[in-house]
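User: Hey, my collaborator sent me this sequence without any context and asked if I could get a structure. I don't really work with proteins. Can you help?
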Amino acid sequence: MIHIVGGGLAGCEAAWQIAEAGLTAVLHEMRPVRPTAAHRTDRLAELVCSNSLKSEQEDSAPWLLKQELRRLGSLVLRAAAIARVPGGHALTVDRDVFSAEVTRAIASHPRIEIRREEVREIASEGVTIIATGPLTSDALADEIALITGSGRLFFYDSISPIVEADTVDQTIAFRASRYDKSLDGTADYLNCPFDRPQYEAFVDALLAAQAVSSHIAADLPNHDVPYFEACLPIEELARRGRDTLRFGPMKPMGLIDPRTGRRPWAAVQLRQENLRADSFNLVGFQNHLKFGEQARILRMIPSLEHAEFLRFGQIHRNTYINAPALLAPTLQLRARPEILFAGQISGVEGYVEAIATGLMAGLHAVELASGGQPRPFPRETALGSLCHYISGADARNYQPANITFDLLPQLDESTRHTLRHDKRARHAEVCRRSVEAMEQHLGCARL
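Assistant: No problem. I've predicted the 3D structure and written it out in structure-token form, which is a compact way to encode the shape of the chain:
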């Protein structure tokens, strides 16, 4: 029997892999007994922030990671395929359908037991996977700090607003994907175009807006909130320069406003939130403003003047361990190898990366519980490189990371020279090498 603490993406994937291997998995999820600041339901694998699982463009790093997970029978990616909604090159899902599908699969598996309870202590015996995600309870976070012998690390993350579709003025907003790129040739985004005066007024309003007064900053030196750089609130981006937003989440590149025949000065993209297409999220518009301020300022966006919001942006704590100081490449705690970490608490960033560590932790836990010694995935694979990073990065300056080609080993000098003028070909070669290494790894595992 293997215990998994946390019923998010990583915990569900780990439980599924364990059960499919023939062992019993006990999945502990504290909701609804103990709610969190960000979750809205008691379903497993609820997506709190975005509804996007990143790019599906062939030979990209996120695509490669997902291909490896599919090759290994990922439950969560199977659910994502069922819940998919239009999102250009991204794998975007209806978050309600997605979590319902994962919950159904987990609850119906004969070798998975779900326990709705808060885990405050880690068992001293047996194999345990800690996959409590970024919203780990204070009691368990303190327990983890005791086990690891170090204080917990954390940064603060934000979630984007969601707007009712029928309150978007589509005489102004226009459908398009940047550079007309989408998987099936359709225009998957609604785009809200700004001219220069509208953009300048919007930035002025952001800079003058009132943020939520919070205990978060009060407990930190100089009231300096440590936001994650890859997911900064829009008001923080505005403070970094007047053009930062229009070179970031509001970049207009690859878009033409049909009313003018020209590229807008800036644009906000709205991405379909569910299969019914009755709501959209504002892409990259996470923020920490008071709800009244959000309503006022977001209605300055052209086409959202009369918008009704189903959810405003919010901020929450994101807890993670200093993985390079604590974890082996098999995600085992070096000091106590029977304990494995998975998901965002293990020191990765992103949904697919959380799924990946959950899948690997599940497979390694099976090996441990069966009396074997877990083997890391090959360095040439996206899975292996992700674990290599979180277990081998500089522990003194560690930040969680998404999968990128920079994490994978470089091609040999001869190949790099031959393909030096063709970035796409270099990426394709990295992907080919990864597939080859994975097949060899799986072949050896069957012997």
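In plain terms: The first helix runs from residue 9 to 20. You can pass these tokens on to your collaborator as they are.
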